[in-house]
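Lab notebook, bench 4. The sequencing result for the construct came back, and we need a structural model before the next group meeting so we can plan mutations. Quick request posted to the team channel:

Model the 3D structure of this chain.
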Amino acid sequence: MRTIRWTQFACAGVLAGCLAAWGPSAPEAALTLHIDTQHPGAEIPSDFAGLSFEMETLLPGKDGSRYFAESNKALIETFRNLGVRNLRIGGNTADRPSVPLPDAADVDSLFAFAKAAGARVIFTFRLRAGGPQDAAPIAKHMVDRYGSNLLCFAIGNEPDIYSKTYAAYRDELKRYMAAFAEAGAGAAKFCGPGTTPSKPEWARDFAEEFGHSGRILFVTQHAYPGASGREVQDGAAGRKAMLSPEWVDSYESFYRSFAPSAEKNAVPFRIEETNSYYHGGARDASDTFAAALWGLDYLHWWAMRGAAGINFHTGDQVAAADETTKCYYATFLTSARGYVMQPLAYAIRAFELGGHGRVVPVRLQSAAAGLNVRSYAVLSSGGDLYVTVINKEQGSGRNAMVTVVAGAPFRSAEILRLECGGGVSAKSGVTLGASAIRENGGWSGGWQRVIGNIRQGTATIGIPAASAAVLRFSMHAPSN
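Done. Here's the predicted structure in token form:
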């Protein structure tokens, strides 16, 4: 199925500037998007965009300092400014016997950070070489002190690697539940099973067995569409795959492998750990502008499918197998002045700007066969319509001229562009609204006014190949 055929939500860009930038020889394709604002769908949770970190990140460094601490103002500002409201602690080091278990002081520091950052926590307890009696006191400590910032507990990270059968994992989970209740942490909510992408049937079984128990907050699943980054020997091939329609098709089959069971049993599902490729990502692919375009599409795709959220796995380094691997897919990396934003951070920031409200269906009209464009729309509680388009055409690919028919009268329309002069292979030079994101996540980009028949909800806009944009139709007068 070609990407352009089953796109369900809408897009953005400014006509005059694009025509000048494209030049007379740039190939172009025309699209029309009819947005049905009268039938909005599910509301996107406020903490949809999340991050996932290794458990060992909680442990103090050689100098005694902690990464997650109330004193780490730059990281707190980064979370707040990017719009990260969900923090999952887990990864391979959650179940690695050689890594010390966090103690109460580590947990206290984590939750002081989470409170300051405005984030809620998914916390993983060790299952492999662990035990419920050791975990129960820490669980009670968190429930008693940090309930407002604690979402749920996961038991084990990718337990299919060592539990081998779902039944074995289920029995262990029940032991933890019983031990926590006995210790006085019976109010705790759980999530699971959080398996590798190859075992979604465990998520189906989990939803069937625990969905109506009252103890489960989410069915969780891990997802890495590109499999191992170590297998990507050519960056161009890795980038091409990330932006391909085939990856989008794979999301659909993956979704169908577990999500309908969660929905049938009335329990939300969350992609608790994910990124483009596992083993730290693919060099010259996961760390390029291609990741910004991929990530923005990926966030909206799962929001459209009713997910409770997704957590991009990240960190300065990532623990894979029994070694520490450079993190090519990082959202941001530690610097002397704070945290340097990587391309994926721009996807999260763009989603934060255009991804709060209820998803809105779109009917697409186009004679452009096979155009690699993805588009989405969200209706805010205040009545503003946010329309996002991602043109994933690469190289000499086609530019998109898009007529958006918003389906309702508005007073103004404005646009923010996500672009990079170096193209999809660039690792720096990314801008959103003509501005880079600073090392504390701060951003001073501006909306640009769109000229069109706004009072009838119509605007024609251009989206160059290898770029994206967020268009805002507003009930208010223009901001500039």
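The first helix runs from residue 3 to 6.
Will bring this to the meeting.
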